[in-house]
Design goal:
Strands 2-1-3 form a 3-stranded mixed beta sheet. 65% of the residues lie in helices and 2% in strands. By secondary structure, it is mainly alpha-helical. A hairpin with a 2-residue loop joins strand 1 and strand 2. The protein is globular and about 110 Å long. The two termini are 51 Å apart. The longest helix has 18 residues. Helix 12 packs across helix 13, helix 25 runs antiparallel to helix 26 and helix 43 runs antiparallel to helix 44. Pathway: Protein modification; protein ubiquitination. Keywords: TPR repeat. It comes from Rhododendron simsii (Sims's rhododendron). Pfam families: TPR_8.
Length: 907
């Protein structure tokens, strides 16, 4: 329950009153007793913090903003593209779309028009890919380089000052002046070619050939110009050869300063580049950065900056680096990063926020970012973000000004910050009215009602939270508040139902934590242990009760009150949970099994399967939703899955096993061919189930040729001949059945599914239902899916699939159930909208799609709504949705065609 803004109503004293050691004794029978507690003590035990004020850009109509960005990208100059992709990144961040955020950064990097942009966005992508060094190493082991975001050669990226030609000799008495001029520095003389020195700059030319007294002298004293004899010899050498040879860094700096003073542009450029090539460490960069700014040496400045940025986030723990970056004035920023100051401080603010949003350096970076903002859209992003930081730091007056400024330039979400400030100052009614005003002024969104609920009580509060869930069912706070309220009234069944409702489609750690508290209160320690072990699987360092207690500590205490399972018990429990599609329960059992001496590599691999992969492969590209598995991919935790895979690799008991896990790591990060190679390497050492399974999976995904199905069948058959447990055998049979269906071999497919069901691979019901349907046995298909619904713990996808095998009214009922169980599934919205459109209810059809689009940026929903707008003659609406959809997937061919068609009708 960690938030950016802790609840003011959840005071420190109340949290301190909850001492885990006092209410969770090690001896049995001395635990917290729910039935004996008064409502007030239960309330102090089960606390739901207020939803955080998110420091993100959250436009009221994100579709409109994405469409505007896409339209501008189509017509803007190359120099403007990166800043537009950065704004797109902020929109996707506000929507919680991590993959789209990274793709926007990738686009900004690829479309960079300057070295500075390439440097900044390359460093940002490198920062986003922290912890992926193993993947780079694995790619290298496959003969593929993955250093795309490594340091760039700054000097080669900057255009050389070749346009600065030698200075022509001035004056009328050239032939009367001595060819040699002697410069005295102290007692040492340096003889130079007068004409070549004069050619270095206009000041030297004027001095040596103009109307100055020096033009008539053969000896000139330079002792007061901060140049040493050695430095002057370097200048003389450059004037003759036009290049710098091996010159010590300190001497180069001296020559750079001299060249800048006398406007020797070619010499200065050469020193700038030479010094830039010597920057290899943070200390080098710190020593040279101030020189680069004071002497206007852009290549050196950019090279120093690159060192800092490629050392993120560690370099922000260095006060010297932070001070240097924060104190740079406008002129210095121009030298350091050209016109890309906003992008630079956006990156620095992001990293600093992740380290500590309340820190002084975070506030300083955001202040610099605000100074660099050039457009209202940029300002609203920064005003709000800095307002959130000031709020967290309890600097309320400054926060109020910033939220007001953000609101004034159009960022309606900043009203949340103003409302919180009003509440803190005791103006609860003002906060309520502020939210009411926002609700009445725009098309309301779920967060508006959620926020307003904080400033009212009783039925009004419950009504606002119901409305919040109706408009945005992905908001977790309304479910948690209702669940806690039911629990305080000792309405246990409804409390658990409410929290399970959100956990059915969104694995939110704060909801698992709340349910863990419920189970403790109910003295159901086995269920409590299951939840805390699932939490630790997803986030090993997680702390409960707003960071007060380590989850691992609570797990140790609860563990004492649950009977120990033998290894055999654990496998039976895992088999039961896996078969009933209870992914959270399966994660918990695996966590417990990892404490034993069992083969840890195998267990960590099982963990990764639950966290990411459905285990279904498909050969044909038709009907992609056909292969959705009941409960498959529901957890969708790629970071935790990758951590589990890396642990599996680390604990592999043999070389061939390690190669399989490496293959899955590569496959899951988009390197399919390299994953296939690892599978082949593993098979060459030993024929194993997992190696054949990986090869079949990777081959089916990497080949667009349907003829490869026979190879995939052969690989899966080989896998089934190798030793493995029934969990994996069931998955292999299910996959084999899927391939047979795609090939039209329905009898063989049915045999596979039936054999999978015999070993309780529950998901095989879906495959068998498909076989029945293809045999024109629709009733049998419906019954098969009904069996799956009755068995699977998480069955939204089963309802969705069953809806294809029944009449319209039953289909409608099943799809309504899908939306209730998992509002993130888009097929039900599309189906209902299509039915409405068929019935000529265009407004209702568009409203149905808009309902889901409000909280989910989905390509298919936007595509269908664009088509509906086109059908009804709303050209601007269709064009807006096309452009927003192309922001989600710029290469979607159908959207490109639709946009082209709509463009031809644009007024």
């Amino acid at each position: 329950m960690r938030t950016f803004l802790p609840s003011e109503s959840c005071k420190e004293a109340q949290l301190n009153a909850l001492n885990p050691q006092s209410w969770l004794q090690v001896e049995r029978g001395k635990l917290f007793k729910f039935s004996s507690q008064s409502p007030s003590s239960i309330e102090s035990f089960i606390k739901v913090p207020e939803p955080p004020v998110l420091p993100f850009f959250k436009p009221v109509d994100y579709v409109e903003v994405l469409a505007q960005i896409h339209e501008e990208l189509e017509s803007c100059s190359p120099q403007a593209r990166s800043s537009l992709y950065l704004l797109q990144y902020h929109v996707f961040k506000g929507l919680g779309e991590a993959k789209l955020m990274r793709r926007s950064l990738q686009s900004a990097w690829m479309k960079s028009s300057t070295t500075y942009e390439k440097l900044i966005f390359g460093a940002w992508l490198k920062y986003e890919k922290q912890g992926e060094e193993l993947i780079s190493d694995l790619l290298l082991s496959c003969g593929k380089c993955a250093k795309e975001f490594g340091p760039i050669d700054i000097a080669s990226e900057f255009p050389s000052n070749l346009h600065v030609s030698s200075i022509g000799v001035a004056g009328t008495n050239v032939n009367q002046i001595s060819r040699i001029v002697t410069f005295w520095i102290g007692d040492e003389k340096i003889e130079c070619d007068r004409q070549k020195i004069a050619g270095l700059s206009e000041p030297f030319n004027s001095m040596l050939y103009g109307c100055f007294r020096e033009s008539l002298r053969e000896d000139i004293d330079l002792s007061r110009n901060n140049i040493s004899p050695s430095g002057m010899k370097v200048v003389r050498e450059f004037s003759s050869t036009g290049s710098l040879n091996e010159v010590p860094p300190k001497l180069l700096l001296e020559v750079l300063v001299f060249a800048n003073r006398f406007c020797c542009e070619r010499l200065k450029d050469a020193c700038d580049r030479k010094l830039a090539s010597l920057v290899s460490s943070r200390q080098d960069a710190l020593e040279l950065k101030e020189y680069s700014l004071e002497e206007n040496a852009p290549v050196l400045a950019a090279s120093c900056l690159q060192v800092f940025l490629h050392d993120l986030p560690d370099c922000l723990n260095d006060d010297q680096v932070v001070q240097l970056l924060c104190n740079a004035n406008m002129q210095h920023r121009s030298i350091m990063v050209g016109q890309s100051s906003f992008s630079l401080y956006c990156l620095l603010s992001e990293v600093s926020m992740n380290l500590d949003p309340r820190s002084d350096k975070t506030a300083l970076f955001l202040e610099r970012l605000l100074e660099c903002a050039e457009t209202n859209r940029q300002r609203m992003v920064v005003y709000h973000q800095l307002g959130c930081v000031r709020l967290m730091r309890k600097e309320y007056d400054e926060a109020e000004k910033l939220f007001e400024a953000a609101l004034n330039v159009g960022h309606v979400y900043s009203v949340v910050g103003l409302a919180r400030l009003g509440h803190i100052r005791g103006h609860k009614l003002w906060s309520y009215e502020k939210l009411s005003s926002a609700i009445s002024s725009v098309n309301p969104l779920g967060w508006m009602y959620q926020e307003r609920s904080l400033y009212c009580e009783g039925e009004k509060r419950r009504g606002d939270l119901e409305k919040a869930t109706e408009l945005d069912p992905t908001l977790t706070y309304p479910y948690m508040y209702r669940a806690a309220s039911f629990m305080k009234m000792q309405n246990i069944e409804d409390a658990l139902a409410e929290v399970n409702r959100v956990l059915g489609f969104k694995l939110a750690l704060e909801c698992l934590e709340l349910r863990f508290c419920f189970y403790l209160a109910l003295e159901d320690y086995e269920a409590a242990l299951s939840d805390v072990q699932a939490i630790l699987t997803l986030s090993p360092e997680y702390r409960l009760f707003e960071g007060k207690v380590a989850a691992f500590q609570l797990r140790t205490l609860v563990r004492e009150h649950v009977e120990n399972w033998t290894t055999a018990d654990c496998w039976l429990q895992l088999y039961d949970r896996w078969s009933s599609v209870d992914d959270i329960g399966s994660l918990s059992v695996i966590y417990q099994m990892l404490e034993s001496d069992a083969a840890k590599g195998v267990l960590y691999f099982r963990q990764s399967l639950l966290l990411l992969r459905s285990g279904i492969l498909a050969i044909s590209m038709s009907e992609p939703h056909i292969h959705a598995v009941a409960g498959g991919n529901r957890l969708n935790c790629p970071e935790a899955a990758m951590r589990s895979l890396q642990l599996a690799r680390h604990h592999a008991s043999s070389e061939h096993e390690r190669l399989v896990y490496e293959g899955w790591i590569l496959y899951d990060t988009g390197h399919c061919e390299e994953g296939l190679q690892k599978a082949e390497d593993s098979i060459s050492l030993k024929r194993s189930f997992e190696a054949y399974f990986l090869k079949a999976y990777a081959l089916a995904d990497s080949s667009q040729d349907p003829s490869c199905s026979s190879t995939v069948v052969s690989l899966l058959e080989n896998a089934l001949k190798c030793p493995s447990d029934r969990l994996r055998k069931g998955q292999a049979l299910n996959n084999l059945g899927s391939v047979y269906v795609d090939c039209g071999k329905l009898d063989l497919a049915a045999d596979c599914y039936i054999n999978a069901l015999k070993i309780r691979h529950t998901r095989a019901h879906q495959g068998l239902a498909r076989v029945h349907f293809l045999r024109n046995e629709k009733c049998a298909a419906y019954e098969e899916m009904t069996k799956l619904i009755g068995t699977a713990r998480n069955n939204a996808s089963a309802y969705e699939k069953r809806s294809e095998y029944c009449e319209r009214e039953l289909t409608k009922a099943d799809l309504e159930m899908v939306t209730r169980l998992d509002p993130l599934r888009v097929y039900p919205y599309r189906y209902r909208a299509a039915v409405l459109m068929d019935n000529h209810k265009q407004k209702e059809a568009i409203a149905e799609l808009s309902r889901a689009i409000a909280f989910k940026a989905d390509l298919h929903l936007l595509h269908l709504r664009a088509a509906f707008h086109e059908h009804t003659g709303d050209v601007l609406g269709a064009l807006r949705d096309c452009r927003a959809a192309l922001s989600v997937d710029p290469n979607h061919q159908e959207m490109l065609e639709l946009q082209s068609r709509v463009n031809s009708h644009e007024p």
